[in-house]
Design brief:
Radius of gyration: 52 Å
Strand order of the largest sheet: 2-1-5-4-3
Helix content: 40-55%
Strand content: 15-25%
CATH superfamily of the largest domain: Histidine kinase-like ATPase, C-terminal domain
Structural class: alpha+beta
Number of domains: 3
Number of strands: 15
CATH class of the largest domain: Alpha Beta
Number of helices: 15
């Protein structure tokens, strides 16, 4: 079942919109709370200020001593004050008995004050804010005492604002806040879409999974190749460099990404390639007394050159690998062993002649000739391919030099090879197997060192067996011996068995390894013949 994957542009858009939405409405929540609090404080402050101002109005105290129905000037004055106020909707003047002298509704004049929250101002002469329900409805009410010229309290002032009006003010301001936040949200959504598109364009329309895959592939490529790689941007700054280049340059620094390439590698010629835009292939270059083969190419973004890249490979290693892949090294080593053995025998013959032992010299020549003829006849009769036969004869001579008895199975047979299983492949496989067997037998103190070889060709396949009584392979190392670079021997690149594995697998063949520590090793390789 395919799992739904959200696109990067959609993710970024949703993320930015979410952040904007949360930011706006979190801010709006706290701002609204503060705004409501400020409205309450503002109304309470205004009502208290009006109550205090009215309580200080001249002649208010004298009016309270008269009959409230006798003079309406106090009511007229209060109505004028109310007309000038925006948030205060009621002002009531009452005496110490709670009898009203002024009221927004003049019909209520002369009646008792309603609400029950006037007790404190009457009994204690306090100024305070309260919330109670009066004749006009529930309201926020501010009380202030009224004193005559002698400092005696003769009544009080109540200034108030209806709760209903306060709620209306709150609603208006909240609606305004919501509209402003909605406009901000629209701007945020527009910005999110534009930013997401720009980011996606910058990332070449790649999704995060694709970018992650490219990064992992890049790391794997850099780990898999032995070439040195270095890249620069259009400002000559290093953007990529691997350990091989650092090793060639003899640099032990940690990170040199971002440094000018001319400071680190002045002979790289990458700035020249960057300026000319012309690639350079298979150029020889000397780096720290090492001859390397270099390829340099510009990095292009459409028609614009945005950087340059160079790869390096030690020429000596390339030559050695070429020899190993083609089997040339195995043939050369075999011929060298034959030449060395031949020179040794000539020296023996020459010595016998010089001391006058002509009969011994003749006898030695015949013995050597007979023994050599037996080996040559055995190999040539069994192995019809001349290159493979020459390799095996050379390995016989090399084994004899090293004090190793090398045997070829009497049932061995190999026709002259053509087609996909050519003699170069067989030379590489047989040569490396025998060479490894020799090195293994030389690591043990055993006078009876031996190597057994069998090369058998049937109608279906070619079977190669090489057995030795050497040091053997640890059980945990057997799965690792075909990995390039793995070796239990010092100063070894671990290439021989890796080459064997590559060639056998390319031909759909199989490899068996039987070994135990201290008891020797046997390799069995079977390669199916082409139909």
């Amino acid at each position: 079942m395919k799992v739904f994957q959200m696109k990067l542009q959609t993710k970024i858009t949703i993320l930015i919109i979410s952040i904007v939405l949360i930011s706006i409405y979190t801010t709006m929540f706290f701002t609204t709370r503060q705004m409501i609090k400020n409205i309450n404080e503002e109304i309470e402050t205004n009502t208290m200020n009006i109550a205090r101002i009215v309580s200080y109005t001249p002649n208010i105290a004298s009016y309270l001593k008269e009959d409230p129905t006798a003079d309406s000037s106090i009511q007229v004055h209060i109505e004028k004050v109310l007309n000038e106020m925006q948030q205060v909707e009621m002002i009531v003047i009452a005496d110490m008995k709670g009898v009203r002298y002024a009221h927004p509704n003049y019909k209520r004049i002369g009646e008792k004050f309603v609400g029950g929250d006037e007790i404190r101002v009457i009994e204690k002469g306090e100024r305070y804010i309260s919330e109670a329900t009066g004749t006009l409805g529930k309201a926020i009410r501010a009380f202030a005492p009224i004193y005559d010229d002698e400092g005696k309290q003769v009544g009080f002032v109540m200034a108030g604002t209806l709760t209903q009006s306060i709620n209306q003010i709150r609603k208006e301001r909240i609606v305004t806040s919501i509209l402003v936040s909605f406009i901000g949200l629209l701007l945020g959504i527009t910005g999110a879409i534009l930013v997401a598109k720009n980011i996606k364009k910058t990332l070449l329309d790649l999704e995060p999974e694709e970018i992650s895959q490219l990064y992992l592939e890049k790391k794997s490529i850099l780990s898999a190749i032995h070439e040195g790689i270095i890249a620069i941007d259009e400002n000559h700054k290093i953007t990529l460099i691997n350990d091989t280049v650092l090793k060639l340059l003899g640099i032990n620094e940690g990170c040199i990404i971002g440094k000018d390439v001319m400071e680190i590698f002045p002979t790289s010629r990458l700035p020249n390639v960057l300026e000319s835009g012309i690639s350079e292939y298979d150029k020889e270059q000397v780096i720290k007394d090492t001859i390397v083969i270099t390829n340099r190419v510009p990095i292009r973004d459409k028609d614009k050159i945005v950087g340059a890249l160079a790869t390096f490979r030690d020429k000596t290693i390339i030559t050695q690998l070429a020899e190993e892949v083609t089997g040339v090294r195995q043939i050369v080593d075999s011929l060298r062993a034959n030449t060395h053995e031949f020179m040794n025998k000539l020296h023996v013959i020459l010595g016998l002649i010089e001391v006058g032992e002509l009969d011994e010299a003749k006898k030695y020549i015949l013995t050597v000739r007979e023994r050599q003829q037996q080996i040559v006849s055995l190999v040539v009769n069994k192995i019809k391919d001349p290159m493979v036969a020459a390799l095996i004869l050379g390995k016989f001579s090399r084994a004899k030099e090293l004090g190793i008895e090398m045997n070829i199975d009497a049932n061995s047979y190999l026709a002259k090879r053509r087609g996909k299983i050519n003699n170069h492949i067989l030379v590489t496989i047989i040569g490396n197997l025998i060479e490894n067997a020799m090195e293994s037998t030389l690591t043990i103190d055993n006078k009876e060192r031996y190597i057994n070889l069998k090369v058998e060709e049937t109608q279906e396949s070619i079977i190669i067996e090489v057995e030795d009584n050497g040091a053997g392979i640890k059980k945990e190392n057997i799965p690792l011996i075909f990995n390039r670079g793995f070796s239990t021997k010092k100063e070894s690149r671990g290439v021989g068995l890796a080459l064997i594995k590559e060639k056998v697998e390319n031909l759909q063949g199989v490899i068996e390894v039987h070994s135990s520590k201290g008891k020797g090793t046997r390799f069995i390789i079977e390669i199916p013949k082409e139909r």
